[in-house]
Amino acid sequence: MIDKPPSGGFLFSAFAMIAALAKREANPYRTRPIWACLFLKHLEEDTMSQHVFTTTHEGSAIEVLMGWDRPGQGFFMVIEKLDIDEKDDADLDDDAYIYTNLYDPDLIENGGVSHNLDHFVKKLEELEIVVPEAILANVQADGEDNVGNKYVSYVYEGDQLIITSKPL
Question: Alpha-carbon distance 127 to 111, whole Å?
Answer without folding.
Answer: 23
